[in-house]
Amino acid sequence: MALVDMAAVTLRKEELHASVGDPVLDTMNFLNEITHRYPKAISFAPGRPYDGFFDVEEIFTHIRRYLDHLEQGGATPGEIRNALFQYGPTSGQIRALIADSLRKDENIDVRPESVVVTVGCQEAMFLALRALIAGPDDALLVSSPCYVGITGAARLLGIEPIAVEEGRDGFRCADLETALDAERARGRRPRAFYVVPDHSNPSGTTMSLEERHALLELAAREDFLVLEDSPYRLVSPGRQLPTLKSLDREQRVVHLGSYSKTLFPGARVGFAVADQRVVDKDGNPGLLADELTKIKSMVTVNTSPLSQAVVAGMLLAADGRTSELNTETSAYYGEAMQAILARLDECFPQQDRDALGVRWNRPDGGFFLTVDVPFRTDSAALVRSAEDHGVIWTPMSYFYPQGGGEHSLRLSVSYLTQADVSEGVARLAQFIKSESTNAG
Amino acid sequence: MALVDMAAVTLRKEELHASVGDPVLDTMNFLNEITHRYPKAISFAPGRPYDGFFDVEEIFTHIRRYLDHLEQGGATPGEIRNALFQYGPTSGQIRALIADSLRKDENIDVRPESVVVTVGCQEAMFLALRALIAGPDDALLVSSPCYVGITGAARLLGIEPIAVEEGRDGFRCADLETALDAERARGRRPRAFYVVPDHSNPSGTTMSLEERHALLELAAREDFLVLEDSPYRLVSPGRQLPTLKSLDREQRVVHLGSYSKTLFPGARVGFAVADQRVVDKDGNPGLLADELTKIKSMVTVNTSPLSQAVVAGMLLAADGRTSELNTETSAYYGEAMQAILARLDECFPQQDRDALGVRWNRPDGGFFLTVDVPFRTDSAALVRSAEDHGVIWTPMSYFYPQGGGEHSLRLSVSYLTQADVSEGVARLAQFIKSESTNAG
Fold first, then answer.
1. Residue B55 banded pLDDT, cuts 50, 70, 90
2. Do A268 and B302 touch (CB under 8 A)?
3. CATH number among 3.30.10.20, 2.40.160.10, 3.40.640.10, 1.20.140.10, domain B58-322
4. B139 in contact with chain A, both atoms CB, cutoff 8 A
5. Strand pairing of B162-165 and B138-144?
6. Number of Cβ pairs closer than 8 Å across A and B?
7. CB within 8 A of B344, min separation 6: which ones?
8. Closest CA in chain B for residue A299
9. What would be the CATH architecture of the domain defined by A16-45+327-439?
10. pLDDT tens for each residue of A370-383
11. pLDDT single digits (tens) A258-276
12. Which of A8, A281, A300 lies nearest to residue B14, judging by beta carbons?
């Protein structure tokens, strides 16, 4: 006992599970580090919602409203107390409210039994992957570039996602078909395809109605499920295209839901809609939601009833219409997107764009857009950008599970003020011009 | 589109991940089903805390207290708002309060950086397993009978836990040593040993001080980590033995923390204390807590700041001493345990016990005790018990990862009133006598 400190264990990182060495995580850490190292830089990196509309006092009002709702529904004081303090059903206690809201907001018509309340959409992704990918012969395909949450969840389970590259205008069904064929040729069975159909993170693209229908037909024909993740729809201005789930006549779509953008991230409440029929060997029927619930019992047991209470209170305040709660926010984000696009136009007149080979897309909603530049957008470039020009962005290569995006960057418009957007784009233009000159 | 319903997908359960077919989950579902089917039966099954001491209004007070604390610490109104509404650090925002509480309550002296706040202790288990078990050659050993949460988390990751049977008085280091040798002989590397040292779930046994020291020495000698899960200590009457973590001089112990019993389950807040040093290939040092945090970012992103706020408010109310918050509850549970033991003595006089071959242990704390009986405590027996005698218990076989416990049952004392305990044990005695007669 004398050599106390000398004897302390040292673990070797390469002996831990491979997921902790995932390059995506390292790059995300790097991004955080840069943000800390250059606190005065304007950062287009974080995808956080704008928080100017949040009001602390409302937390209390929302919890109260839910408790009143329980009381009006006939709950005894003891039941109300337990609904906040005890464990609670693993599948969640506000499933009926969520199903009601989905019907009103999204034309998604499912029974509450098909809904599993999760700790954010991230847990919903994890549950869906764990249920559907049973072994190394089961393939997960992802629209690429791709949200890091799905690749992260896959890494934990040793799943190597197969990237299906999107085109400039987004997802193309034909490319998915090619990828499916390639997987089958390798002896693997495509089980699920993950996509953000609306205002995608990171690219900002939206899937056309025609591609939506084609995707559902392909899923039926090729026998796989679509994992639909669509957190930006109701915080985007204007009319949205229908969700895949609302078009789904064959229960081919598992809809992964998030309240992080429509209500608030701190609730950590999301959900999965999994109305697929599952039969066991003896023919006993159940729902995929039941299987996700079992898995959830081994991950988080249940979603905080307190968080569910706040979310329920918010849903009740708008009679389930989260779209109505987001009139102001979606206008705000829409204006931010218009502002950044106008500012990019201003800072890069057409002749500059052509000369430099700079271009960007023009999403009509969501938090993100992408800019293609004529130089490598790697970590070294990011450091130069932060240090010499005071502006931070996210390298698009972070979002390509199998390589790509080396000459693109992602800008987020959700969190900055319009003044910061204006100044930030000016700095970005300086940085891009400086890099292009050096590269040239 | 005409054959809408006919075309709906049907998934085959045997094609989903094997974890959803885990027998433990099926038996747990069976137990729930029985509880629903016989609502008038007295149930000794649930391990939920007693909720008579909860008070809905306190939720509001605790959140307020935490917000005041932030304000006194110099946070701006915007920062306070964000601390509730935004995402927040993946490792948690109340780590300093938890570290302070651990020092005061448990003599565990670690820096806040070693703490990761999790969605209940269940997520902490999952993170620890995912980090430490890198592949099929890494072995997880568990004290058996064993809490189902650890076996469940293991199943998700395809890990087959190795059971180390405890004796009548609990864990024996010599048996672990034998199991370690056997694993090494199979070419596997023991990485972690999971144990509930105090008032174990399900058996109710407590590890002696001598075995605690011996376990730490063995861990150092054989180079593995101990996963210490100890949710019942501070809700048990009297002085507790020191935690393994407080005796740990070589950072051999990862302490898995729960507030479900000491504060309330609905918070879904737990934590891992992982102060182990980790070095990467280039020699860069970090903490195991950092690696758990990375994994958490792929499971739940972060623990609800709202839940953390309530927990923080409770900790602040007692200046970190959760033990003080639990004076009343630990007395309550202690009395419940004494009551059930007295009632068992009463219902089974010594000559009956000897004649029938019935015996039980006498835990001095926690929620559980075990009863050995002379017949099989299987699902069929449970149905007879519920239907014919109006009493429900948990078959101990549910808790043996590699078989065992076929003639034992677990009784929980945490949730029932003393009147129910009294009537329930009388019914149990009738059931046991009836089964023993039939068996004889």
1. very high
2. yes
3. 3.40.640.10
4. no
5. parallel
6. 290
7. B360, B371, B425, B429
8. B123
9. Alpha-Beta Complex (3.90)
10. 999 999 999 999 99
11. 999 999 999 999 999 999 9
12. A281
